[in-house]
């Protein structure tokens, strides 16, 4: 039987093939090795802070998202889980194992406390972000499940049904959501898988989604990626540097609702199937009219640079507005929505094929905001009613979660203030 | 309306934000720009050669695999498709678009000949590898669909049913398979999606699989990755440098079967669901016994280094062999299988959850070999009968395809020799 730690393997990897001779020694190591220079030089994102990481953090390339049903009825068990999760998340985001990989506490029959597939991999920018769904506070019958009903924020209501919605309930909602983002998908998958393992008996995976490529920039330094319609996406996103706007539109402020959520944010998820085969048959000019930006540069219609201001007024030779009244950008823009802003953080997905000869592909839309009633909901209403793009998309899953503020001390845990601890 | 090419956007990206002012000019470019220094400096894999790329090519990190049903009945249409595909694959592996992104041949109503989501991305090591399934040669009723039945290799038979198989036919088989591997998943997805687009009306997507992380090394220089059981995978794989072994075990040789396949290889795919939650509950010692290697270093049981020879004979204090008789490594090893070898090239996958509270995760197993009757089939028989690992895995999809040799000239296309052209 051997023991090994993620960080130690990493150090070993750094010394090259010659280090393999030392492998036997490695398998005897019993204590979590200290942070070494080699490991420290990697790309870890700080786990603690006033706000949770994984929101304004420069959008990582890959996503593994999971929504859990809580199956325990025991409040203390739930609190213990949140404590254990927080500790494991702190370890994993630092590039460490979720727990000991070898015999646990000297008991050889115990299963390892880490599943091992991230051994040797650096932190890879991993962030783990948690949110609580409305059903954690009270169930469908209105029952207060864990003594939390009094702390339910008014804004944390299941999203309304929008025109055209084709939602599959089995992949929607959930009591607790966890978003793992990393630049290496193996690291993101490892994180969710280990949190699910730790939660065994207390929670059950309700649904889960992999995203292979980010569709947003969340800092001004990041290049704008492209979605599966082939367009740049995230150009006019809220950005980490816009601290005044983040205060106004992203972070829940004192007095907005229950105190436990101050410094947190509301997370909305929408899995949006994109009918890419149909899209691919439409001419470039039509695609650009539907989005309201050019495909090559991402410039707004009538402008030349990606970051030029959107021009609502200019008309073309035909007397029609250059930015069509049914274009996505016009309908989603703050001007049209009472200055609504949100931080988008979505990912492209492909889930195999659909049994009808087509790829099952689309956008796993993620948005964070201070109040969904002033951001996602009105914007989606406007899109659902008039967006020409609707012909090419189907919303198949929906979720809303209240994400508590960041972890601030070693005793702190996800939801500590919610549980009054 | 704008025009843009993948390579030109890439060059532009290279010059930074200042280049955005030139974007208007860019959108007017009508001809495919020449290769620039910036683009040439990226990681393209040669498309042409005696064998297809994507087999011994250093295993890229990400996979998008698709199997198509041919829906046209017209042999000439099929040949044209294979020609068009070959041309598009040559372009995309060089980091170019599949075709013009702007108005095609000056017709503004025509849809773009590339979908755009890879604009600005480098080649990313993209390889595109094609294989023909038995059903392309004759259908279930034995009918010769395209005048190819006489060229059906004897070894290209649907795989037998193995003990314990739980195969889903709807995600198995297929007339033509295409494997796209790249270090950027967006590039791999873009490739398959554009080939599917080009094939519209002639082929239909039967099934498709994304793989987020490689589970094999195919060259001695590559670090061994880990599968979702947390173990190093690919240690004792066939490697690109072992040219004598590749001749013996990987590439179809003259006289093996029909001439058109000489220089090709047989591709076997198996989607293997891994019951990771059950695995995660078993002790480390048991996991290591099942695999036959240690989890930390990947050394064979009783040895110290990952690349040490497997030791079949040593016994432990209890008199039992250190390498259990039911261990995966013992049962899969060439010693136990009449010296059978194959080149494994699999990928980890997570396809959301299974509706029963668990992640739907596993290994998309891919193996290339000279003759499946001497490699995959006997090895899988041995595993299916005795592998302790069977308790933790379920084979849910199966496929076999004959991959023609590489593209050797500008007029050459995938399957040219098969179609006698
Ligand atoms: C598959 C579905 C969608 C696609 C393909 C898509 C694509 C795009 C693209 C290409 C842009 C322009 C670039 C940018 O500023 O980021 C954009 C902007 C935007 N989208 Fe979407 N989007 C989708 C769904 C949604 C949804 C569901 C919402 C929210 C309800 C949304 C809200 C926005 C907002 C707020 C903007 C910025 C508008 C501006 O300020 O000019 N999008 N989207
Ligand atoms: C989920 C299923 C599987 C898992 C998790 C798995 C895992 C592993 C691991 C960890 C090794 C040891 C490292 C190495 O030498 O690569 C290995 C070796 C090997 N596996 Fe698998 N494997 C699976 C399925 C298969 C299948 C279906 C086959 C072929 C029928 C196969 C054939 C082999 C071979 C030939 C070796 C090398 C044995 C040797 O030469 O020592 N594996 N596998």
Automatic annotation (TrEMBL), chains A, B:
<comment type="similarity">
    <text>Belongs to the DyP-type peroxidase family.</text>
</comment>
<protein>
    <recommendedName>
        <fullName>Deferrochelatase</fullName>
        <ecNumber>1.11.1.-</ecNumber>
    </recommendedName>
</protein>
<keyword id="KW-0560">Oxidoreductase</keyword>
<keyword id="KW-0732">Signal</keyword>
<comment type="function">
    <text>Involved in the recovery of exogenous heme iron. Extracts iron from heme while preserving the protoporphyrin ring intact.</text>
</comment>
<feature type="domain" description="Dyp-type peroxidase N-terminal">
    <location>
        <begin position="52"/>
        <end position="212"/>
    </location>
</feature>
<keyword id="KW-0575">Peroxidase</keyword>
<dbReference type="Pfam" id="PF04261">
    <property type="entry name" value="Dyp_perox_N"/>
</dbReference>
<dbReference type="InterPro" id="IPR048328">
    <property type="entry name" value="Dyp_perox_C"/>
</dbReference>
<dbReference type="InterPro" id="IPR006313">
    <property type="entry name" value="EfeB/EfeN"/>
</dbReference>
<dbReference type="InterPro" id="IPR006311">
    <property type="entry name" value="TAT_signal"/>
</dbReference>
<feature type="signal peptide">
    <location>
        <begin position="1"/>
        <end position="23"/>
    </location>
</feature>
<keyword id="KW-0456">Lyase</keyword>
<dbReference type="InterPro" id="IPR006314">
    <property type="entry name" value="Dyp_peroxidase"/>
</dbReference>
<feature type="domain" description="Dyp-type peroxidase C-terminal">
    <location>
        <begin position="224"/>
        <end position="406"/>
    </location>
</feature>
<dbReference type="InterPro" id="IPR011008">
    <property type="entry name" value="Dimeric_a/b-barrel"/>
</dbReference>
<keyword id="KW-0408">Iron</keyword>
<keyword id="KW-0349">Heme</keyword>
<dbReference type="Pfam" id="PF20628">
    <property type="entry name" value="Dyp_perox_C"/>
</dbReference>
<keyword id="KW-0479">Metal-binding</keyword>
<dbReference type="InterPro" id="IPR048327">
    <property type="entry name" value="Dyp_perox_N"/>
</dbReference>
């Amino acid at each position: 039987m051997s023991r090994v730690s993620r960080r130690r393997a990493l150090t070993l990897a750094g010394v090259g093939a010659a280090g393999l001779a030392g492998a036997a020694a490695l398998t005897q190591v019993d204590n979590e090795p200290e942070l070494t220079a080699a490991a420290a030089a990697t790309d870890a994102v700080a786990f603690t802070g006033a706000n949770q990481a994984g929101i304004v953090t420069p959008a990582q390339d890959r996503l593994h998202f999971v929504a859990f049903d809580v199956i325990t009825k025991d409040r203390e068990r739930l609190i213990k889980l949140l404590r254990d999760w927080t500790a494991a998340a702190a370890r994993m985001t630092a590039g460490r194992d979720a727990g000991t990989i070898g015999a646990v506490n000297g008991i050889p029959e115990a299963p390892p406390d880490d599943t091992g597939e991230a051994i040797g991999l650096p932190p890879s920018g991993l962030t783990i972000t948690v949110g609580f769904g409305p059903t954690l506070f009270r169930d469908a019958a209105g029952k207060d499940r864990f003594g939390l009903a009094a702390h339910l924020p008014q804004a944390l209501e299941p999203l309304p049904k929008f025109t055209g919605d084709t939602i599959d309930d089995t992949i929607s909602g959930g009591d607790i959501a966890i978003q793992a983002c990393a630049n290496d998908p193996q690291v993101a998958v490892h994180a969710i898988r280990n949190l699910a393992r730790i939660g065994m008996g207390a929670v059950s995976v309700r649904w889960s989604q992999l995203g292979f490529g980010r569709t947003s920039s969340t800092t001004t330094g990041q290049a704008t990626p492209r979605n599966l319609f082939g367009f740049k996406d995230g150009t006019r996103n809220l950005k980490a540097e816009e601290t005044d706007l983040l205060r106004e539109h992203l972070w829940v402020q004192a007095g907005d609702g229950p105190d436990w959520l101050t410094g947190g944010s509301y997370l909305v998820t929408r899995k949006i199937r994109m009918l890419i085969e149909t899209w691919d048959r439409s001419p470039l000019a039509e695609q650009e009219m539907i989005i309201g930006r050019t495909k090559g540069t991402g410039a707004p219609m009538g402008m030349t640079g990606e970051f030029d201001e959107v021009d609502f007024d200019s008309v073309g030779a035909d007397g029609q507005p250059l930015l069509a009244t049914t274009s996505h950008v016009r309908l989603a823009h703050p001007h049209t929505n009472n200055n609504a802003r949100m931080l988008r953080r979505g990912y492209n997905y492909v889930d195999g094929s659909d049994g009808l000869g087509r790829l099952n592909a689309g956008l796993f839309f993620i948005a964070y905001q201070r109040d969904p009633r002033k951001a996602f909901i009105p914007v989606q209403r406007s899109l659902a009613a008039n967006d020409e793009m609707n012909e090419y998309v189907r919303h198949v899953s929906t979720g809303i979660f209240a994400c508590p503020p960041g972890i601030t001390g070693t005793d702190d845990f996800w939801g500590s203030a919610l549980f009054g601890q």
